[in-house]
User: What shape does this take?
Amino acid sequence: MNWFRPAVVSMEGYAPGEWPALDAGVLKLNSNENPYPPSPTVMAALANIGAELLRRYPDPLASDFRQKVSETFDIPADWIIAGNGSDDLLTLLVRACSEGNVRSLAYPMPTYVLYRTLAAIQPAAVVEVPYQQKGTDWRLPIDQLLETNAAVTLIATPNSPSGHVVTRSDLRRLAAGLSGVLLIDEAYVDFVGKDADRANLELVREFENVMLLRTLSKGYGLAGLRLGFGIARPGLLAGLLKVKDSYNVDVIALKLGEAAIADQTYKHETVQKVVAAREQLATELRSLGFLVWPSSTNFLLVKPPQDIAQSLQTKLKAKGIMIRYFNQPGLDDKLRITVGTPEQNARMVQAISCLL
Assistant: This one.
């Protein structure tokens, strides 16, 4: 007997990076987690979680958290929506805006493959447009994306797994030409540089069809918390609020999220350490003969000196070091490596050097 919808039967589920046990002694550089702990203010807030807070349902609109985001980024609180990670908000957008062949999703490839999975669940048609690549440069195929007439166009910037940033002028041209929603997924924006987390906010102020997506998983070191937020005009958020779970973010996540957002100083200090380690790691891998793409994230896309990407990933795993291999066209000769601490990176580089 088949219990599932045809779309679910035929689709492939999203495959996240492997997850070893915490006590396995594995160096986990395959899921782009921040190697540093969250802010001490977050840990203090966790210690002050009381029984009464846990007994009650959370605020369904996450009012206090939204207010803290509002104060930090100078945007109205009713332009903000909280989610159980930014993936939850992606799900809400696809659920609210896409349907079948008439209301499709479009995005450039390669990018975050969850977009394809969410479309398959809906189901909704997908138009995948290849990036125009020249050397290590990635050029957004703007005209082809505009031609799709998609209900939702998804642009990750910085993009994964390439690590590059899409320019604001390209995003503005897309927003102006689209009849549907432009979702700008900024999961890695904290690693771009000074004030990058505010740069595309002007597009939300300028266009009613633009939504920015942020997460606390990367720059704030809270991947295990599952908390993200979206920024858009209230008219766009209204549809998402209709289809979200009644209490889609738990009280612990909201309280710790407030503390994390409030401590921007700690976040910036942590990000600077990751960026410095990223540049050092890129230099060391290039010295081993790797092609390393420029990155504005907490990971590197690299091509080993020989056609050994998959075997190198397998051999590193046997040594207790996990990095990411993508078995898909255009990426099957490359690896994505999360930036760890300087000590973690040195361990990995030493292992790679021995294997080569």
Observations:
- The radius of gyration is 20 Å.
- The mean pLDDT is 96.
